[in-house]
Design goal:
Largest sheet: 5 strands, mixed
Strand order of the largest sheet: 1-6-7-9-8
Radius of gyration: 20 Å
Distance between the termini: 34 Å
Protein name: Putative papain-like cysteine peptidase
C-alpha cells in the first residue's frame, strides 16, 4: 500500500509519518497519559454516559469510538487502549495491530494537543464534515463536550459556491427558507439550488412548524461562527472532493479577509480526490493560504468509514493532513 501511495506522488515525509515503532509508541503513550490525567484531574466524568457503548473487541468500530464518542479520554479509556495495544504488539501482522496502532497514535496526538495551551481558533468552512471531524479527533479543536459550539459548516454538506455565498453575505440568506425543502427519500432538509444537504438533521421533526427547530439550531450555529471568526488567531479549514478550483480558493480567502476586517488569518484548503499530489502556499488578501492536493489513498476510500480511515493507507493519509495542519497551527 505504501508503494502505491508513493507512486501517486505522496511526499516522503507523509509516508514515514505514521505511528513510530511500537515500543517507542508505547513508551510515549505511557509518558503522555500520566501527564494528561494529571492535567485533566477534576475535569469531565470518567465514563461516557450516552446510549452508545464501546465495542467489546478490537475492530474499525473501536477506532470510530475513540474518534468520536470518547474524544475526552478517561483513565479507563487510557488503560483499555494501552492494554489492547500491548496485546496487539504480539501479533504485528494482523488487523488488530493496525487498528490499535491508529488508535494509539491518535490518542497520543490528541493528549499532546489538548495539553498545549493557545493556538488558533479552528473553523470549518465545508464542504463536508471532515474539517471539524479531523481537527477535533486529532486534538487541534476542542470537542463539544469540552465547550466548543457547533457551527453551520461542521455537520452538513455545502457546495463550495454555497460556502462562498454565505461567507460573502455574512449568512444573511442562510436561513431563507424559500429554497429549503425536506426530502422524504433522504429524510433531512436540503437546499438543492445552493447544493446544501443538512444530513445530520434526520427526521420529519426538523421540518415541522415551518422548520422552527431547524432554524433555531442554525441561528445558534451562525452566531457561534460569527463569534469564532473574530478570534485573535483564526484558521479556516476547507475540504473538497470536487474538481480543484484555484479561483474558488482565492475567493474564499478574500471573503475570510473581509469577514475579519483585513486582520491576518490562515486558510487550509484540501482537495482529497485530486489526480496527483501537489501543495502550495501564498498570501491572498492578507490570508495565508495553504493548498494541499492529494489523491485518495485507494479508489474506494471513504474518509468517514472506520474500516477505511483506520487502515494502513487511511492512517498515512490522515497523518499527511495532520502534519500539514500541525505546521499551520504552530505557525499561527
Amino acid at each position: 500500500m505504501t508503494v502505491a501511495l508513493a507512486a501517486a506522488g505522496f511526499p516522503e515525509d507523509a509516508l514515514t509519518a505514521a505511528a513510530p515503532a511500537p515500543i517507542r509508541t508505547l513508551a510515549l503513550f505511557d509518558r503522555l497519559s500520566r501527564k494528561y490525567l494529571a492535567w485533566k484531574a477534576g475535569g469531565d466524568s470518567d465514563e461516557f454516559d450516552g446510549a452508545v457503548r464501546a465495542p467489546d473487541k478490537v475492530s474499525p468500530e473501536l477506532a470510530n469510538w475513540y474518534s468520536s464518542y470518547k474524544l475526552h479520554l478517561s483513565p479507563s479509556d487510557i488503560a483499555s487502549i494501552r492494554r489492547r495495544f500491548e496485546e496487539a504488539m504480539l501479533r504485528p501482522g494482523d488487523g488488530d495491530f493496525q487498528v490499535m496502532s491508529y488508535i494509539a497514535d491518535l490518542t497520543i496526538h490528541r493528549m499532546f494537543r489538548h495539553m498545549r495551551a493557545g493556538g488558533p481558533r479552528i473553523v470549518s468552512i465545508g464542504e463536508s464534515c471532515l474539517p471539524r471531524t479531523l481537527s477535533t479527533k486529532w486534538g487541534f479543536k476542542p470537542s463539544r463536550l469540552m465547550g466548543e459550539p457547533t457551527m453551520p459548516f461542521d455537520l452538513a454538506v455545502h457546495a463550495g459556491r454555497a460556502v462562498l455565498k454565505h461567507l460573502q453575505g455574512d449568512f444573511a440568506a442562510y436561513l431563507d427558507m424559500a429554497g429549503v425543502a425536506y426530502r422524504e427519500d433522504l429524510r433531512y432538509p436540503v437546499n438543492e439550488a445552493d447544493g446544501v444537504f443538512w444530513n445530520h438533521e434526520v427526521g420529519p421533526e426538523w421540518a415541522q412548524d415551518g422548520f422552527r427547530k431547524f432554524t433555531e439550531r442554525y441561528r445558534r450555529r451562525v452566531a457561534a461562527f460569527r463569534e469564532a471568526t473574530q478570534a485573535e488567531s483564526c484558521l479556516f479549514f476547507f475540504y473538497s472532493e470536487n474538481a480543484h478550483r484555484p479561483d474558488l480558493v482565492a475567493a474564499l480567502a478574500e471573503a475570510i479577509s473581509a469577514l475579519r476586517g483585513g486582520r491576518p488569518a490562515t486558510l487550509f484548503a484540501v482537495n482529497g480526490a485530486h489526480p496527483a499530489f501537489d501543495e502550495s502556499e501564498q498570501v491572498v488578501a492578507g490570508v495565508t493560504t495553504r493548498v494541499l492536493l492529494t489523491p485518495r489513498p485507494y479508489p474506494e476510500f471513504i474518509w468517514f468509514q472506520p474500516a477505511h480511515f483506520s487502515s494502513a493507507a487511511g492512517h498515512i493519509w490522515e497523518r499527511l493532513l495532520v502534519g500539514r495542519l500541525t505546521e499551520l497551527v504552530d505557525a499561527a
